[in-house]
Amino acid sequence: GRLRAETDGQAIPVGDPLPVDGTRYDFRTPRAIGGVRLDTAYRDLERDPDGLARVELAGPDGRAAVLWMDAGYDHLMLYTGDALADPARRRGGLAVEPMTCAPNALATGGDGLITLAAGASASATWGLSPRR
User: Fold this and answer.
1) CB-based burial label for 88 (10 Å; 0-12, 13-18, 19+)
2) Which residue, 55, 84, 114, 115, shows the most beta carbons closer than 10 Å to its own?
3) Chain-centre distance of CA 99, in angstroms?
4) CA-to-CA distance for 42 and 63, rounded, in angstroms?
């Protein structure tokens, strides 16, 4: 995404979203995560002509997968697990979570929150595929 949420000490979003351009949070050009600690919500996702936003995940052995999401997902959460209490579980992987709304949306005015009338429905689709 082009924007990320700034958070307080409890990982609650505060203030307006910040641009990622030129920061350590900018992964739009593929690069290693390195020491960047992520518990970070992204928004303003870039989409391909088919309307899908994609996150490519590659390991040091060259294997890769693509997480894709349709327009029903406006936000994306990346989490490296650095804050996990069990040291053996830290940095064991990367969590990538498509989200239909911003974190804490119920308490912050509903950024992206979908509200449905009785009997109405909403849908969104995501998936994993091998590298394109």
Assistant:
1) exposed
2) 55
3) 7
4) 25
Q: What is the C-alpha radius of gyration for the chain, rounded to an integer number of angstroms? A: 16
- β strands within the chain, DSSP E: 3-4, 18-19, 39-43, 53-58, 64-69, 75-79, 95-99, 126-130
Instruction: Give the pair of three-digit tokens for residue 103.
Output: 């974190």
At a CB cut-off of 8 Å and minimum separation 6, what does 5 contact? Answer: 13, 17, 18, 40, 41, 42, 43, 102, 103
What's the predicted TM-score (pTM) here? 0.84
Q: Which tens digits make up the pLDDT trace of 42-86? A: 999 999 999 999 999 998 888 999 999 999 999 999 998 877 777
Please tell me whether residue 63 adopts helix, strand or coil conformation.
coil
